[in-house]
Amino acid sequence: MDNQNNKNSNKDNFVNKYNNDNNTFEHDSKLPNDIFVTPWEVQGKLGEENYAKLMEKFGTQAISTELIEKIKKITGEIHPLIKFHYFFSHRDFDWLLNKYENGESFYLYTGRGPSGLIHMGHILPWLFTRYMQDKFKSKLLFQITDDEKFLYNPDLDRDKIAEYTYENILDVIAIGFKPELTKIIVDTKHIKHLYPIATEIAKKITFSTAKAVFGFTTMTNIGMIGFPPIQAAPCFLPSIIEKKPTPVLIPAAIDQDPYWRITRDVAEKLGFYKPAQIHSKFLPGLSNSSKMSSSKPETAIFTTDEPEIVEKKVLSSFTGGQPTIDLQKKLGANANICPVFWYLKYFFDSEKASTERYYRCKSGNLLCGECKNQLAEKSKEFIIEFKKRREKARDKITDFMFE
Ligand code: TYM
């Protein structure tokens, strides 16, 4: 189905539904009240059930078996992050693939807000984006929202943001994107390319809508209130660069979705395609939290961590294990709530190895120490290799800059 022009589709009605002045950012869906997902904050326990409710609330679609078959038909395979439902939701990904099959190539667009160093959660959508670039030979716009993070964080000054911007760019390059197909946009540096289109977008969005979609209040600084069109602008930049309507696919975790809702709402009014999205879940932190987060550094693995720190963090991780070895052998453990299990599954295990791990864990034949040791070893190897790539990236920055 071509969803872009389906005005009656309930997929894009979020903005209209909330577009009234009495609205606050309240939960009207069946999402529990302690679940709170915005581009700047994620709170609460996000299990399978709540991800499904988030889709309902945000008006996105599950990645269906038909869609997976379609991807397989085009690429000849299914990426593990789709197969394992880490990417679980989308908007118009089917439409975009139809366009591709009909000869229209698409751009990829993703990004980073440089408020700190990069952890393993950030790089999962980027590794997937690189895979998509390789498979579809797609051009990629990678936006660094240094303005957003300056405006949002009371404690970050412009110098600190500039430092993180530089450090984060090294990570982006270390992911392995193709320089000839990739352009990094740093908002404060490349604003002249974004501003004309951002003002067009801004003119079509009321404060009432922004308030409802992002949860802004009268205490929010006006820089933040005016920021969303800047993150929306790269969705339309490809059409301007290519001088023809150009489809765009955004791989990111579902926290960024509010931006795409307002972007999709104005797209047709401005003569562009609505950007398509593929949404991931969050990589859990090594504590019992839903999302790996820089604000809890002891539970996040950073690409800049020393190997012994990585080891220490992994070995002190929360697991789904029992309080004693005897009980574990008797009752088995719970892989579903274990960050060590998920981390191994998403980054390192084959499908077969992960299934075996799951059942050995459940039956009590696998102890948490074994999984932790394996994860510590694999993460250390990964980080050591990634750091070498980061170092090499220092000489490549200009090749990747938008201009
Ligand atoms: P930022 O810097 O918060 O996050 C960068 C990317 O990482 C994802 N992410 C995670 N994914 C999995 N597990 C986690 N624990 C985790 N934490 C963060 C985010 O969804 C994002 O994909 N405003 C944006 C920057 C931006 C952007 C974009 C992001 C500008 N344009 C286009 C995605 C797409 C931000 O601050 O992202």
Describe this structure as you would to a colleague.
This protein has 403 residues and is α/β, with parallel strands linked by helices. Helices cover 50% and strands 9% of the residues. The protein has 20 helices and 9 strands. The protein has a 7-stranded mixed sheet, with helices on both faces. A two-stranded antiparallel sheet has the order 1-2. Strand 8, helix 14 and strand 9 form a beta-alpha-beta unit. 45% of the residues are buried. About 5% of the residues have low confidence. The protein binds tryptophanyl-5'AMP (TYM).
Largest sheet: 7 strands, mixed
Integer average pLDDT: 92
- What's the total helix number? 20
Proportion of residues in extended strands: 5-15%
Query: How does the overall form come out from the CA principal axes?
Result: globular
What is the terminal separation in angstroms?
Answer: 38 Å
Task: From the alpha carbons, calculate the radius of gyration and give it in angstroms.
Answer: 21 Å
Strand order of the biggest β-sheet: 3-4-9-8-5-6-7
Give the cofactors and ligands. tryptophanyl-5'AMP
* Unreliably modeled segments: 7-28
- Which sequence of SSEs, written as H and E, runs from N to C? HEEHEHHEHEHEHHEHHHHHEHEHHHHHH
Helix-residue proportion = 40-55%
Number of strands: 9
Look at the helices and sheets and give the structural class.
Answer: alpha/beta
